[in-house]
């Protein structure tokens, strides 16, 4: 299944990102897993999973350090995403947080810098920080994470707010709330959704409905959960795989096409929302 190219998702900027990337939360926290995690990330690059998602929050910087090591000598192959924590996201704080991230990541720029979630700092302040970083080339573009529809509308109404490239949110079979309004709204304005925790941190893997579909296709439950998220053109997914085996498996999911019968079965087990569900987050 791995021979099919990973499809791409177009950002408003015109950049094309792979629909399947790699998450990194908790990587670098356990010294015993470090070598395997670095091998997994490098394998992912080899296989076309070239979007790497990290954050200053992960492991208090340990994860960014591990990503920096994994990308050493290969930085140009990756579309590198990191995030600023809300309490750092003043104008000066955003610039300082990004500078520290760049140091840990051993690079001079990020391809995409996200506000991790909305805090008390006015959005205009964070936008001013992003503008400073854009001006001196430390970030190529910026986006947000964990923004619900009303947050997105407010953001877009601010000067420069319409330069947002992506909303990274929790989306998987168990967390379908965004299908009611956020996803259609993003589709309407052409802002891609980056789906985090696409296998619900492993919880989906034992679900009988997911396993049933997986058995029919002769694939794993993780692959079904990923293929389900990837069925939408506007969505990209960033599963975290800490072992080469899981990277190979996740990569192969990019070639898996679920049938209408599969989707019907999954809809019965995980009904789509019929009312507004406030955005959930991990
Ligand atoms: N913006 C935000 O607020 C936010 C929040 C949460 C996550 N994220 C980002 O999204 C990424 C993904 O989300 P997540 O880490 O929360 O959860 P996830 O990707 O849904 O699940 C990760 C878990 O699934 C396992 N896994 C991956 N592929 C597998 C496979 N083929 N077979 C069996 N198990 C498999 C991993 O195990 P192994 O580690 O053993 O491979 C890990 O335990 C994060 O790493 C992070 O970069 C962002």
What does this protein structure show overall?
The chain is α/β, with parallel strands linked by helices and 282 residues long. The protein has helices at 34-46, 62-71, 91-105, 123-135, 149-157, 182-189, 208-217, 221-229, 244-253, 260-269; strands spanning 8-10, 16-18, 51-53, 79-84, 112-115, 142-145, 167-170, 193-196, 235-237. Strands 3-4-5-6-7-8-9 form a seven-stranded parallel beta sheet, covered by helices on one side. A two-stranded antiparallel ribbon has the order 1-2. The mean pLDDT is 97. The site of NADP nicotinamide-adenine-dinucleotide phosphate has 29 residues, from helix 9.
In whole angstroms, the N-to-C terminal distance is: 31 Å
Helical run tally: 10
Record the strand order, biggest sheet. Answer: 3-4-5-6-7-8-9
CATH-assigned homologous superfamily: NADP-dependent oxidoreductase domain
Encode the helix/strand succession as letters. EEHEHEHEHEHEHEHHEHH
User: How many DSSP-defined strands?
Assistant: 9
CATH topology: TIM Barrel
Low-confidence stretches: none
SS-derived structural category: alpha/beta
Give the CA-based shape: globular
Structural domain tally: 1
Which CATH architecture would you pick?
Alpha-Beta Barrel
In which range does the helix fraction lie? 25-40%
Described by strand count, sense and barrel closure, the largest sheet is:
7 strands, parallel
**Which molecules are bound in this entry?**
NADP nicotinamide-adenine-dinucleotide phosphate
Q: Tell me what portion of residues adopts beta-strand conformation.
A: 5-15%
Radius of gyration: 18 Å
> Could you report the average pLDDT, rounded to the nearest whole number?
97
The CATH C-level class name: Alpha Beta
